[in-house]
Design goal:
9 strands; 2 domains; 3-stranded mixed beta sheet; 56% helix; 14 helices; alpha/beta; N-(1-d-carboxylethyl)-l-norvaline Dehydrogenase, domain 2; 6-stranded parallel beta sheet; carbohydrate metabolism; Rossmann fold
């Protein structure tokens, strides 16, 4: 395909996007601080870049998959950043969960620099990212979407166009993360209660998925608890960050968010217990230890 792409941040979501681009025949450059991620990307046929500036010099559409707004600003505008080396008209697709005000500021700075920006946080998890089946909550100018179309089609199942104004994607992601974090906490609480009643967790997981109490997070993260597998596809510490964004946004709007506040406290407590780098389903381990219940995979 006659377009070149770059991916900054080859974590579980960024790597999934990069591999999806390669499968679509799009020449793809990738950047990550971790040597193992760069090596895996190269083995898949990608072209590792030494820094953000070198990546931007070779890419027409650049996906940014770093952790937070501070890292976005660093890789775009810091020393050796991508923006100074980018060609006019390059499209930057910002796929990071952040405060809407940060998304608005970053996109405005990109436009002032003569490049285009799409505010496009994503959802779907590592498995859907690897399949090119994520959902994108995106806002930005029509021209940016047109130029980036082959790239967006390669990495996503659905692109929700939320208007031309940056920040709309970030606001939608706040709502998504509010629900996701609460549902993870509910899953953890339910599985621990079931374990305390000596119920078969695999049976609980199977039955509830056909009942009204099910959620996507119960189905997905509950499977991690049943298997005792806390490989960090999305870590506890990610939800410490994201639920902090949710509660800060709610506080600024004077919108009550008691469930979000409770979920944030639980994620923070799990992180403080040493579970921060484990899968976010490890919230169940934290609650199980408080209840004196042993879950599969609990070595603590």
């Amino acid at each position: 395909m006659n377009i070149s792409a770059g991916v900054i941040g080859l974590g579980s979501m960024g790597m999934g996007a990069a591999l999806s681009l390669l499968r679509a025949g799009i020449a793809t450059h990738g950047l990550d601080l971790r040597e193992d991620a760069r090596a895996a990307f190269a083995d898949a046929g990608g072209q590792p870049a030494p820094d953000a500036a070198a990546l931007a010099a070779d890419a027409e559409v650049i996906l940014v998959y770093v952790v937070n707004a501070a890292q976005v600003r660093e890789v775009l505008f810091g020393p050796g950043g991508a923006v100074a080396a980018a060609r006019p008209g390059t499209v930057f697709v910002i796929c990071v969960t952040m405060q809407p005000s940060d998304a608005e500021d970053i996109c405005a700075r990109l436009e002032q620099a003569g490049v285009m920006a799409i505010d496009a946080p994503v959802s779907g998890g590592a498995a859907k990212a690897a399949e090119g089946q994520i959902s994108m909550m995106a806002s930005g100018p029509d021209e940016a979407f047109q130029r980036a179309a082959p790239v967006l089609e390669a990495i996503s199942a659905t692109v929700f166009r939320l208007g031309a104004t940056p920040g709309a994607g970030a606001r939608m992601k706040v709502i998504n993360q509010m629900l996701a974090g609460i549902h993870i906490a509910a899953m953890a609480e339910a599985m621990v209660l079931a374990a305390s009643q000596d119920m078969d967790l695999a049976e609980v997981h199977r039955v509830i998925q056909s009942c009204a109490g099910n959620s996507w997070m119960f189905a997905n993260r509950g499977a991690h608890v049943v298997a005792g597998d806390y490989t960090p596809h999305s870590a506890v510490d990610i939800f410490v960050k994201d639920m902090g964004i949710v509660t800060d946004t709610a506080l600024a709007a004077d919108a009550p968010a008691p469930l979000s506040e409770t979920a944030l406290k639980l994620f923070r407590a799990a992180s403080a217990e040493g579970l921060g780098r484990r899968d976010d389903a490890a919230l169940a381990l934290h609650l199980a230890r408080k209840a004196g219940v042993k879950l599969p995979g609990d070595e603590g």
